[in-house]
From TrEMBL:
Ranges for region Disordered: 1615-1651, 1663-1938
Domain (C2 DOCK-type): residue spans on this chain: 403-575
Subcellular localization(s) per the UniProt record: Cell membrane; Cytoplasm, Cytosol
Pfam name, any one: DOCK-C2
Keywords: Cell membrane, Cytoplasm, Membrane, Phosphoprotein, SH3 domain, SH3-binding
Annotated source species: Danio rerio (Zebrafish)
Primary gene name: dock4b
Name of protein: Dedicator of cytokinesis protein 4
Amino acid sequence: MSMWIPTEHEKYGVVLAGFRGTVQHGLPLEIGDTVQILEKCEGWYRGFVLKNPNAKGIFPCCYIHLKNAHIKNKGQFETVVPSEDSVITEMTSTLRDWGAMWKQLFVKNEGDLFNRLWHVMNEILDLRRQVLVGHLTHDRMRDVKQHITARLDWGNEQLGLDLVPRREFSMVDPDDISVTELYRLMEHRHRKKETPAPVSTHHLFVHLKSLMSSNLGEELEVFFFIYDSRENRPLSERFFVKLNKNGLPKFPEKTERQCTLFVDLGSSDLRKDVYIVVHIIRIGRMGAGEKKNLCNVQYRRPFGCAVVSIADLLTADSKDDHLLKVYACNTESDWSQIHDNIIKKVNSRYNLSGSNTGLAVALQLLHGDIEQLRREYMVLFTRGVSITKKLGFSDVIMPGEMRNDLYMTLEKGEFEKGGKSVARNVEITIYALDADGQILKGFVAVGSGEPGGDEYHTFVLYHNNSPRWAEQIKLPIPVDMFRGSHVRFEFRHCSTKDKGEKKLFGFSFVPLMQEDGRTLPDGTHELIVHKCEENANLQDCSRYLKLPFSKSNLPGNNQTVKGTKESLWITSFLCSTKLTQNGDMLDLLKWRAHPERISDSLSKLKEIDGSEIVKFLQDTLDTLFGILDESSQRYALKVFDCLVHIINLLQDSKFQHFKPVMDTYIESHFAGALSYRDLIKVLKWYVDRIIDADRQEHIQQVLKATEYIFKYIVQSRRLFALATGGQNEEEFRCCMHELFMSIRFFLSQENKSMRPITHTQAVFLQSFPAVYNELLKLFTVREVATFVRETLGSLPTASQPDCPLEAVKLHCIAKTVDSQLYTNPDSRCVLLPVVLRLLQAHMQEQRDLVMCAHILTCMLSLLKKDDTDSSSSEEVDLIVESVLAVLLRTILEVANRPQPAGPTLRPQVQDVTGEFVSCLLALLRHMKDKHYQQLLQRFTSKEDLRDFLLHIFTVFRILIRPEMFPKDWTVMRLVTNNIIITTVLYLSDALRKNFLSEKFDYKVWDSYFCLSVIFINQTCLQLETFSASKKKKILEKYGDMRVMMGCEIFSMWQNLGEHKLNFIPAMIGPFLEVTLVPQPDLRNVMIPIFHDMMDWEQRRSGNFKQVEAKLIDKLDSLMSEGKGDETYRELFNSIIPLFGPYPSLLKKIERETWRESGISLIATVTRLMERLLDYRDCMKLGEVDGKKIGCTVSLLNFYKTELNKEEMYIRYIHKLYDLHLKAQNYTEASYTLLLYDELLEWSERPLREFLSYPMQSEWQRKEYLHLTIIQNFDRGKCWENGILLCRELADQYESYYDYRNLSKMRMMEASFYDKIMDQQRLEPEFFRVGFYGKKFPFFLRNKEFVCRGHDYERLEAFQQRMLNEFPHAIAMQHANQPDQTIYQAEAQYLQIYAVTPIPDSQDVLQRDGVPDNIKSFYKVNHIWRFRYDRPFHKGTKDKENEFKSLWVERTTLTLVQSLPGISRWFEVERRELVEVSPLENAIEVIENKNLQLRTLITQCQTRQMQNINPLTMCLNGVIDAAVNGGLARYQEAFFVKDYIMNHPEDGDKIGRLRELMFEQAHILEFGLTVHEKFVPQDMRPLHKKLVDQFHLMKSSLGIQEFPAYVRASPIHFTNGSPRVGRNSAPNIMSPDGGARVVSRRRSDTLQVHRPLSYPAVNRYSSSSLSSQASNEVSNITGHSESSDEVFNMQPSPSTSSLSSNHSASPNVSSSAPSSARGSPQLSDKHKHPRENCLSPRDRPCSAVYPNPMEPTQRPVPHPAGDSSLPRSDPNISSPDKGSPARTTRSQSPVSTSRSPQKTSVPPFTPSPTECQSTGLVSNSPVLSGSYSSGISSLSRCSVSEASGTENTPTDHVLPNSASSGSDELIRRENKTPPPYSIHERNNPRRQVPLPPSLSLPPNVDAPPIPPKPHQIRRQDTEPRRPEQFPRPRPIPRKVSQL
């Protein structure tokens, strides 16, 4: 069997094909993966994919393409680096990183960057292919790499990745270069990214496309030039294009004839008053419109002109084409000035040459030097472009530039008529001729773009004897042909007669060079016009050349010629690198011819123009050294001065490029082998005279030229030594030493009297460093270093800081350090002390810091990282000794310097800080053990060492600051951290040795610990946040530096011993911060420190309250910042040991004597941690939701109850307050702020500034809080609470006699009373929510809450909202209590159903005469308890009469706080379960129905309803059901002997039921009487039928006459008493939303047709079970006309089990948000067809279920469920048996958001126990007669026997209470009809105030109705809120300053 063998060379490869890895130990591979190979065996490799090194496996060899690679750390932990081009490697890894981020961009919908990145990635891949193919040339490869790196950097910047330091396109390993160099690279790349360097050279590209004009037909010539309107002169040559008769270029194939580049424009030329001027000349007949005649002669005639400003091109798009308007002259004589007139807008002189004439040109400004353009715009140069130069030399003259151009401009002429009656048409022909009179061919150039010609014809101005042309030509005549050449101008008159001949009438000429060799001077020349009429006379030029040519040159006696009028003015301008117009220059160059003029010529040299000297630089220098060699005694000083003048001339920016020319001259052409003696002698002579000289200027000029003087001296000496074999060496050395002695003496002088020696010293120091390299050619390195050291050492030390010499000294040092001399280690050891001395002095005084930083950078970049030789070590030691302390101090001062407001200085300061920091880091990196030992030994006292440690720790803290380096400099940050941790490890030893035991120094140790903590918490070290590849790289290079520092903290802490107490509790916060870093090893190291702290604190003070307080404070602030994670809370309990056998913190504590308090602390911290983590996670979400609020409440209560931390408590009160305001929970916001208000008293105690509160007294703050809370109660419509606070505040104002504010308060209070009566308030629904499962946040987990819904929010909407807040939750489909498996599940389960509030304020609710607007507040406010009913059968079920066995299970939930409160939901504190017997159930049902009847009758009597339908339907429901069984069923069930015998204890209750039945009959009789009075005519038959049926009902009950107690007192139907449940509504909309009348059939009656059998198993959804099902009662009316019914009457949600996607039941159909609180509904398709066609008569109503059901509201049958059943009612009409049960819950007729009108129709009160099953099968009887617990029970509303008042429903929360109640009050007090009825909903009116006491007139016809019997309160089922659960008090007040 073969073995696996480790591979030697096969180490790295790329996967060629996908491999599934299905074999045993197989490693799945994807194409393109890179793999590292470890072993091989028979065609298989074993290894891993680089992106996941932990998964190792085997794969076939043939799937891998091997690549070359280097192996680092060979062995077990080897890493493989591919040996391909580093750019390729970087590209590959970068693209991988981008890939993932690119997809995320798509997810985040950042489409623009997504697409741009996609294109860049494709570009990079294309370029990568080119590199990999390997066919590129060296230059092309360089370009490609540049493109690649530019794109990589762009992408990294866009994606926020790190800046990559590079050198020559390759990534730089920070370990391979010094830190200063790394910083410089990073800075350079950063700057490059920020600011592109400004360009000084610009070029204008012009491309002429065409001339568009309607009247062409002749060829054209177009001239472009750049014109300066400020100086009225052209700046450039002309560019010349010929156009054909169509206005298109004549030579379209030759692009160079249409395109040009105006080159070498300076930045000063890009200004508003510089223009591109275009002149257009036509070639044809004299007059543009002349008819063709026999004459074929062509003339050049003006056509038009166009101008455009160059500044306009700076803003235009680079590719814009321009259409230039063409203008023509009004008079031809102005042609030469036309462009000026257009620029100056002199409109009278020009006009448009034609409305549609335009010149189409492309114009583009290009920036950079010409070579750069050639690279960037290759196409432009390859297809051909002519170059148009600037006139004259450019700003910078380059050596080797060969030019000899003579520019000649024909300005104007003056001619006589010549005997003609009209002026002439003059044309000039120009020729260039050589000395022999031959025409120079091709040397007359009109402009670039066209080749030069032999002659040039000017344009002709018609009949003009004083023509002005201003035409420029160029004569590029070679230098050798210049002498003897001349230019001739021939003048001809162009006749317009038949022949059209051109007749010669004169000529002028001008020679180009004078006799003495000088050329024609620049300037304007007035030439003489010589008469000549024959061409033959011009053939022999020798005849006319003897004549005078210029009027200025005429001898004084030749007046005849001078007096002639005829002249020609020309302007000449020579641009030549070879010819001169300067006579003095020629005299100097020809010095041998005139020896007597030498002295004069040398003196005049300084006056000659610099450009003339540089033209003849070599000749001039040869002349000077020739004179020096031949007569050194006489002229040495003058020659020296001339040499100095020339050297300094080359310092000028215009001529600086000639320095290389001089260097070349010295190296190759200089031959003065003896000159060195004279030069040294004269130089020394000058230096010796510095001290005594009065004027220093000339000497300063000499010293400025030191560099080149030394170059000449050294070269001369070398030539001499070469020629003589090194003779006179000693003499030369001696001279040099003497020269340097003179220099040192002059440098050592201090500024005496008024002579500015310092300036002269400064001048010398500036040029001195340039001498070093020259001296090295003749002296050894050490000799030169000694020269330099002694020279620099001789400088005076004590000079004033503002002395200019100080700055120059530093510059000199900088140049020295930069020089080649310093780079040599031999010289460095000589120079270093003097350099460090000067540097240290400057840094101590904080002067010239930029230069200091530069010097230090250069010094440190020369130190090699791995130098082991002693010299290098000594060097480091020397620098440390001199500079380290002052460097630290400098960084501290610079970093803490306040930054100036303006942006100007910031970059410089930043640079300096960065430079110094990099220097410090570089120095520390070079320090080894030995250096640290020497450094520490140098501190003589402990104070010095202490100061040093404090300094360095503080500096390290500055270096760690995020703003220290730009955000993307991760590389630099990691290097910094690595150096810091290394240094700290060295220094911690010194800390231990010197500052422990009796020498303990708290400040140093504190500084150390603070640094360590900040270090660990840096963002750039949090590896968890990085990508896997980046994390891997960092770990490989540096390891996890956090753990290293953590271990160091631990070891230092252990060393502290009893001094640990100094850091308790101060260091708790910082250490806690460290443990919150999600690094397990680090946590394991840090947690034992907490045990130690607790232990020491316990020893000291017997408890660790301090530790606890600090721990909690810090935890809170850190978690708010988002630190910490889930695993952290377990850490306190279980720690994996790192150092030795450390058990968990909890176990350690268990061994201590203070075990209990320790464990308690840990439990508290863990609980707090859980809440804080939840809080942090919730706060990360976007919008405010219940989770955020609940979480904040949980935390707030924890601080209050468990920790008693007032400040934290108050902070969270305000956080919660802000959340409520954001969510518009104004009532909850008020309650929240009230918590803080309750902590304050009405006292004058001063309070400090806190949160957003200013410094103020306690009274002022409490007043402000009161006003804010009142305002919020007002916004939340909770005016009753606002009134209480108004009163309290009013009492305070009254006690202070502040009547102004008292008045305002009373008015506000009054306004609140008005609002209570006038404004409508919606009554919210309440929902019970259970959160089960371990995945919920801690504050919700396995708890149940009751939540107050939003306005208009019904069960369906609430369920959906909860599911949105908890998207992972599963909806539970039943209302049963869950079992343990659900509690412990790793999931989220939500159980939601509606509950009914049980109000505490019974006195208000039971009092007659209280308006509903007022009662409605008490029904839904201050509620502690809620109820939920579930019907079920107990024992055997009687199929004939189910009511005998129908019980109700009533659950009462008690909350920890009342609703509303500081949250919309509170936890359930206690559950109570009671069972209500069938008899009690029956009593409740009848009570509720009686109440409902009373209410409707009252409303009808008081005219509160215009529509009598609700009363009709209700009466019909009760009477009809009774005839068919109704009350008789109760009689059968409870009045039979069997029942009475078996239940003797129920005797009273049976009596009570009988009373209620009699009472109901009495109410019905009264109701029928009222009904008869108001019933419309068309409903009379129904009324008659009802009366008949009522008599039947009475007889069936056995009532002939009402008992005395029933007749005794008349019924009082006051406005408030018959108010019924909040969930009832008088009318309901038909499903189609129309106003169709639907005769309602109550679900009580609707049961009659179906058999009353219940299946044993029926599933009740929580909605069906929920209290909401109650509204069957309410939907009695038939007419619905307002939009609120549409909303109110929608079907209720199918189940409380959230019918949504989360719901598990398939049977649950989602329905619209319903008014019903949870009754299950059928969708339309499940409706029974019969239900839709029943007439009102077919839909009888029972007494118990008076409202018929909307077809849409049929429940969904559930096949199975629990056995609990709803209660039923005996009053069931038989026709209704058999149809499925339905529950209708209508909303009270309130104004909804859609229809904000009040309604005056009161709803009916449902029974608290009525509930409908979702699961009744078709044969199951429907339970009629009970109201769901959605409406609170009336049975609790008891009234004392004595009071005759009626009980009102206790828990009926009525959304429209504000409206209907107030309406009722007003109507009670004033006998007016109600303001609006159902039919008039859309016309709301203000109510008219009425007088009080509206009592009902006793109806004569109606029999007397007995008073409402007292309701017996059942204590067992509905106990009051017991006293043992008092409302929690606010936390005890502290005398705090909050």
